[in-house]
Each structure stands twice: as C-alpha cells, then as structure tokens.
Amino acid sequence: MRKMTFGLIALYAAGMTAVVCARGATDGPEYQGSALLRPSNYREWIFLSSGLGMTYGPLVRAESAPQFFSNVFVNPSAYRSFMKTGRWPDKTVLLLEVRASESEASINKGGRFQTRSAGLEAHVKDSRFGGDGWAFFDLSHGEKAEPLAGKDAAPCVECHTTHAAVDTTFVQFYPTLLDVARVKRTVRAEGK
Ligand code: HEC
Asked: N or C: which end of the chain has fewer CB within 10 A?
C-alpha cells in the first residue's frame, strides 16, 4: 500500500513537472476560442520603452491637462528573436499599457510619475489571423478580448501600417530595438 502511494506521488510529481515545463516553454499568445487572454504576467516581460503624453491614438487622446504614460512590453521569446533578426517571429505579443500620471506628491517637486492603469491594448502576430499575421485587441475591460475588426480595427491598422518603422510596429520609439533594426536593415518607414 505504502509503495503504491509513493508510486502515485512520484507519478503525480512527474506529471506536474511536465505541465510546468510545457507552460514555461511558451510565452506566446493564449486564446479561449478566438479571444486573446490577457497575459497575467506581462509585467515580467521585456520592457521596450515608455512615452509620456504622446498624442496620436484612441487611449491617449485626452486634450485636457492629464498626461498619460504608454508602457510597451513584449513576450521574452519574441524579443530574443528580434534581437537576432530585426524581425518579429510568429507568436509575438506586444502590449501597450496606458497609465495616468501625477506630479507634486510625496517629495516630488517637478516631472511626472505613473499612477493608475488606464488601458491595455495588444498587437499580436500569429499565423492564425491570416493576411499579414497581425491583429489588434483592446484588453482594457476584461480578462479576454476578441480581435478588433471592421471600423474598430481600421484606425489601428491604418496608422500602424502607414507610420510604424518595422512590420507595423513602432520600433522608431523603442530605442534598443531601433539600433538592432538599423543594423539588420529591417527599418521600413523611420520617422514617417
Ligand atoms: C494615429 C496613430 C495610431 C493609432 C490610430 C493607433 N496606434 Fe497603436 N501605436 C501608435 C504609436 C505611435 C505607438 C508607439 C508606442 C507609444 O505610444 O509609445 C503605438 C503602439 C502600439 C502598441 C505597442 C506595439 C507596437 O505595435 O508598436 C500597441 C499594442 C498598439 N499601439 C495598439 C493599438 C490599437 C489596439 C489601436 C486601435 C484601437 C491602435 N494602436 C491605434 C500609434 C497609433
């Protein structure tokens, strides 16, 4: 009996290890049906850059005084691939986290610091989407989101396709990536 219990525990432990390894091996997009799940650990991903008060898009359009930060993160495997090739691989997940900002609190006298989350958008490259492989998502309001389509996706596609430096992504604003893209000659529309 005792032997059997040990046997079962060993089997269970081996199974758990396999599950953990399988999950750890991939940091790409996870879906429920066609909906993208909000990555729970994106704050442990690679930080590309942040912009302050950048006015161009839907989430940061507020013309009134409050200035928003935009923080951009990417899944580590896609980042490693980009650093080698200057291109995004299949299963790239880029996130744009928008945060409100404040000034003159605590010991702060000038400049601005980040506060509450004000939105989360995703730009994902996955062969499942067909076309150029990219899709946009608004993850601001829940744990999952369907790919934006029709008139919801149109402004995202239009601006990113026209102005983004590398493969519809705004690498011109992510300094460490821009250096690599220049060397690999994958820059398409720098500064447009
Ligand atoms: C008018 C131009 C414009 C429009 C429209 C726009 N974006 Fe962007 N987007 C940008 C710029 C500029 C950046 C650079 C990041 C920053 O703000 O620091 C960016 C960055 C991003 C990123 C980070 C990864 C990347 O591709 O560089 C995501 C995710 C993103 N946008 C999602 C969206 C979604 C979703 C929509 C539509 C709802 C959208 N964007 C519409 C200009 C635009």
From this structure: N
